[in-house]
Design goal:
By secondary structure, the chain is an alpha+beta fold. The chain folds into 2 domains: about 170 residues, Penicillin-binding protein 2a (Domain 2); about 350 residues, Beta-lactamase (3-Layer(aba) Sandwich), CATH 3.40.710.10. About 35% of the residues lie in helices and about 25% in strands. The protein has 20 helices and 21 strands. The strands form 6 sheets. Strands 2, 3, 4, 5, 8, 16 and 17 form a 7-stranded mixed sheet that branches. Helix 1 packs across helix 2, helix 3 crosses helix 4 and helix 13 packs across helix 15. The longest helix has 28 residues. The radius of gyration is 33 Å and the shape is elongated.
Length: about 575
């Protein structure tokens, strides 16, 4: 018996020694380990939506702001009657009763009932006096301009993470510091309740100032929407830029959606087709080929081409013009938009040289605009081009570009030959340091001389005078220049051009009394009906937008033009 007692004593002493050694290690050698384990057992963090930085337009008007709203959570363990609570809450909050009841019947001690609720919903739920509910402040995104900027600004999810548009592209800058509420647990691991948000966790994200003018954007969107409705079209877009800097002043896309309603079932309404969709440009591309030919001295502006009186059989393929033309000089080929004239003009230029032109003007690669989802241009390798391919590419078919690529190339033609990188954000303000970063214009490369640039502007001025395809875009107070396009669409099922499906477009600029082009615009309408010619569909739209935006942009009327036209 005495031996057994001594053995038990020895075992107890060894166990006590081990416990003492472990206690010494945790309390003296590694004290942080036990504190960390205690915190993990007794505390839990619940993430809340952070405050994102505000997005402004160029004048400082808010386009996207974060405001505090209430979110409702529950502790199912202390709910007195989960069935009744689920029935009452689902009726007020518009939730599925069965789904909510299942959530409230779980074994968790903290569940979200509904996040980002309205003030009326908060008051109605509080009036129920249900024990076990909590109300927390979360940040919700609001978009004052609604659908007019939805496809550009984009939207965020419940967690305030950017999902589309500017919100997605600049998410790392806009998102604020993570906001968390600490939840206390008792010794059994059960939540006692949550403590408030810590002051250091409410920092906003960086603020952005766009190059967009919300007033110009609103005009462009409303007029675009009106035109699409009038011509029963599928979609369309408008891009307005400063050709000297690459700044985007407006970028409207339709169809659109209301980001404040939080219903994103119709995915087509999310796409900003001006940036993310390719299309065959059609005749709007003709001035680009002329400018390149002039720059490379492949031909001169006085050269004349016989346009075969409206029909030209070329390698067993017949090319048609919309009118019967005989001999036309280069500027009239553009003015009257002769497909035959362009095909014959470019016939002597090698495929590789045409491909180099597309590359130089930025029609092959993404422009690099600060927006997600921009694709490259679509075209085959020039080594596979036939003579017929060259002819169709000369009048804008057989390859595809985006709207932002098209306006970037157009700006390079008319601004002295500089390819300017397009951009949407002009300033970034750091929320922590209060420093402001200014985004400066970026010259990508020079593609034309000033002389050729001035020549091509003069050629495009003829498009908007009497007899030109863009005559309906002309204005009595401003000198307008540009190019129309009416491109037949490809049937996705057959791979051939569809009868009656067209894209109508006009890309142009406005010269005011200073003699400068401070505004360029591309307008594109997809599948208008019953009319599809650009002169009917998009030229009047261009003219209406310019008329309404002139005062906003401080465009001084060109008195010389007005006087000359008025006297005739």
């Amino acid at each position: 018996m005495a031996g057994r007692l001594r053995l038990i004593q020895l075992i107890l002493l060894v166990m006590l020694g081990l416990i003492s050694a472990r206690a010494f290690e945790l309390q003296v050698i590694h004290p942080g380990q036990i504190i960390e384990r205690a915190n993990k057992r007794f505390d839990h963090a619940v993430e809340l939506s952070p405050h994102r930085g505000t997005i402004f337009d160029r004048s400082g008007a808010p386009l996207a702001i974060s405001l505090d709203v209430k979110s409702i959570a529950a502790n199912p363990k202390i709910l007195e009657n989960r069935h009744v609570a689920a029935r009452q809450l689902s009726k007020i909050l518009g939730l599925d009763r069965r789904v909510l009841e299942k959530k409230l019947s779980g074994k968790r001690y903290f569940v979200w009932v509904k996040r980002q609720v309205t003030p009326d919903e908060v008051e109605a739920v509080k009036a129920l006096k249900i024990k076990g509910l909590g109300f927390y402040d979360e940040a919700k995104r609001f978009y004052p301009e609604s659908e007019s900027l939805a496809n550009l600004i984009g939207f965020v999810g419940l967690d305030s993470k950017g999902l589309e548009g500017i919100e997605l592209y600049y998410d790392s800058l806009l998102k604020g510091k993570d906001r968390k509420i600490g939840v206390h647990r008792d010794g059994m691991g059960r939540i006692i309740y949550a403590r408030g948000l810590q002051p250091e966790n409410v920092n906003d994200g960086n603020a952005l100032w766009l190059t967009i003018d919300r007033r110009i954007q609103y005009i462009a969107f409303q007029e675009l929407k009106k035109a699409i409705s009038s011509f029963k079209a599928q979609s369309g877009f408008v891009i307005i830029t400063n050709p000297s800097t690459g700044e985007i002043l407006a970028l409207a896309s339709f169809p659109s959606f209301d980001p404040n309603k939080g219903s994103y079932r119709h995915l087509a309404g999310h796409a900003n087709i001006a940036i993310t969709h390719n299309f065959e440009p059609g005749s709007v591309i003709k001035p680009l080929w002329v400018s390149w030919g002039l720059e490379k001295k492949a031909f001169n502006i006085s050269r004349s081409i016989f346009c075969e009186n409206g029909a030209y059989t070329f390698h067993r393929v017949t090319i048609h013009d919309h009118e019967k033309y005989g001999w036309l000089p280069v500027n009239d080929i553009v003015k009257y938009s002769s497909n035959i004239g362009m095909a014959k003009l470019m016939d002597s230029i090698r495929a590789g040289e045409m491909y180099a032109c597309m590359d130089a003007f930025g029609l092959l690669e993404p422009t690099g605009i600060d927006f997600p989802g921009e694709p490259a241009g679509l075209t085959r390798s020039p080594g596979s081009w036939t003579s017929v391919d060259k002819a169709t590419i000369a009048f804008g078919q057989g390859f595809a570009v985006t709207g932002i690529q098209l306006i970037t190339a157009f700006n390079a033609m008319i601004n002295g030959g500089m390819v300017m990188k397009p951009y949407l954000v002009g300033r970034i303000a750091d929320a922590k340091t209060s420093s402001v970063q200014e985004i400066r214009p970026t010259i990508m490369r020079k593609v034309l001389s000033r002389e050729v640039s001035d020549q091509i502007v003069a050629v495009m001025k003829t498009v908007t005078v009497k007899g030109g395809t863009g005559e309906s875009a002309s204005m009595p107070t401003f000198q307008v220049f540009g190019k129309t396009g009416t491109a037949q669409k490809i049937d996705q099922l057959t791979g051939s051009y569809a009868d009656g499906d067209y894209i109508s477009s006009f890309v142009g600029g406005v010269i005011d009394a200073t003699g400068k082009t401070r505004m360029t615009m591309v307008v594109c309408i997809n599948e208008p009906r019953p009319y599809y010619y650009a002169s009917i569909v998009v030229c009047p739209l261009f003219k209406e937008i310019v008329s309404q935006c002139a005062t906003i942009m401080d465009l001084n009327p060109n008195i010389t033009i007005a006087t000359r036209e008025g006297s005739g």
